[in-house]
Write a structure and sequence with these properties.
Layout: H1 7-42, E1 44-45, E2 48-49, H2 50-74, H3 76-87
Antiparallel strand pairs: 1-2
């Protein structure tokens, strides 16, 4: 296994952090979706109205979209290489 040095190591660390945040946000989005579904049926969940959960869900989704954009930017080179493989 090759040892990474300098800028390559920093990029890999940044990708690992972004991926970890993305996984955490994904799990949170799943939980929020389930809570919103429960609240929409019962009109409330733990005293919170369904509309309030929906607003939290929308804000959470916007944050997740931003992190996904950063993730795609950091991994764009790898994606282009994968597309080249598909074309051949």
């Amino acid at each position: 296994m090759m040892k990474m040095v300098g800028n390559g190591r920093k990029i890999v660390k940044a990708k690992a952090v972004i991926s970890s945040i993305l996984i955490t946000l994904y799990i949170g989005a799943v939980i929020l979706t389930v809570l919103t579904l429960i609240a929409s049926r019962e009109k409330t969940f733990l005293g919170e109205p369904a509309v309030k959960l929906l607003h939290v869900h929308i804000i959470y989704g916007m944050i997740m979209l931003g992190v996904i954009a950063v993730h795609l930017y950091l991994n764009w080179g790898m994606y282009k290489n994968e597309l080249k493989v598909l074309r051949t």
